[in-house]
Specification:
Blueprint: H1 60-74, E1 79-83, E2 87-91, H2 99-112, E3 125-130, H3 133-144, E4 153-156, E5 161-165, H4 171-176, H5 178-185, H6 191-200, E6 204-205, E7 213-214, H7 220-227, H8 238-242, H9 246-249, H10 254-270, H11 274-284, H12 292-299, H13 303-316
Parallel strand pairs: 2-3, 3-5
Antiparallel strand pairs: 1-2, 4-5, 6-7
Helix pairs in contact: 6-10, 7-10, 11-12
Length: about 325
């Protein structure tokens, strides 16, 4: 199961967002997130990051087919732009109103490939950016005879598409971009680490080229309340997270599980350990299915030993 504008300018990446809406049970979509207002990404003057290596496979035929599909589905005036080799960003009606979102897509992907994800998708991933809810829902009705399941956006793995309403904000876009990357880089990653990393970048900033960071967002109150609750405390622990299978993650406490995974990822990222942990677990998954060994190697502690420090950090946010 790894399996979202009013005119947007780059300097205005902080639109007002409505109250978060939890993800309903999926019908045809996978991996969705609620938006949160993002600070305007600031890019410090510095040298550009290393250019990610180009794919070793020939994408020309696939790219041409995806460009034609975008025009067939979205209209002949659709502008398309290839980003990081394997992402085709499509702006129906032209890119003028979506230039900011397109630029954030370009910069976020450059950061994701800068020492974070190592393996690219082997096929082109289409990213459809709609400026507001009307054309976004019209697209879903055209294809599936119903409005989109999420008001913000989703990744449809079976069709290699990210479909976004960027009107409410672009935090869902930076979330959904993670899913096809995890699919390619860590194919058997448990849902909790896939969604934990994706959810980390719902509230993001781009401090310099090649860097992306997450910060506190709307998921925090749910986790803080659980940590303070005698009835739920045992479900909001690091040992419980590491022992969680995908069905449990998507179960009755899915909102809490998302929050726990997200804030573990933020805690690790603030300490410069997230990507070392992710990559170590990815590379040793066969002998370390739960990721606990990788966590201990990187942090020097077991999840149980680290839980108290992490919980105190969460409460202090």
């Amino acid at each position: 199961m790894r399996l979202l504008v009013i005119t947007l300018l780059l300097a205005a990446c902080t639109p007002e967002a409505s109250a978060p809406v939890e993800r309903p049970p999926p019908r045809k979509v996978a991996k969705m997130a609620a938006p949160s207002p993002e600070p305007a990404p600031s890019v410090a003057a510095s040298s550009p990051p290393p250019v990610p290596s180009a794919p070793t496979y020939d994408l020309a035929q696939d790219l041409a087919a995806r460009q034609q599909l975008a025009k067939d589905e979205l209209g002949a005036k659709t502008d398309t732009e290839r980003v990081e080799g394997v992402f085709l960003v499509a702006a129906p009606g032209g890119r003028a109103a979506l230039s900011g979102a397109i630029d954030v897509t370009r910069r976020a992907l450059a950061a994701y490939f800068n020492g974070r994800f190592e393996h690219r998708p082997e096929r082109v991933i289409s990213v459809y950016l709609f400026p507001n809810a009307a054309p976004y829902d019209a697209y879903c009705k055209k294809l599936w005879r119903t409005k989109c399941d999420s008001p913000y956006g989703f990744y449809l793995a079976s069709e290699r598409k990210i479909i976004m309403n960027v009107g409410p904000g672009i935090g869902t876009l930076t979330h959904e971009l993670v899913h096809p990357l995890v699919e390619a880089d860590f194919p058997d990653a448990p849902d909790w680490i896939n969604e934990g990393i994706a959810s980390l970048f719902e509230q993001f900033h781009l401090p310099r080229p090649g860097e992306i960071r997450g910060s506190k967002n709307w998921r925090h109150p749910r986790l803080a309340a659980a940590l303070a609750s005698p009835k739920e405390r045992e479900h909001a622990t690091l040992p419980a997270l590491f022992a969680m299978n995908d069905d449990e993650f998507r179960g009755a406490r899915e909102d809490l599980n998302y929050a726990t995974a997200r804030y573990l990822c933020q805690w690790l990222d603030e300490r410069g350990l997230l990507w070392r942990f992710y990559q170590r677990w990815r590379d040793t998954r066969a002998t370390d299915p739960s990721g606990e060994k990788a966590f201990r190697e990187v942090t020097g502690e077991t999840p149980l030993e680290a839980h108290g420090k992490w919980a105190r950090w969460v409460r202090a946010l």
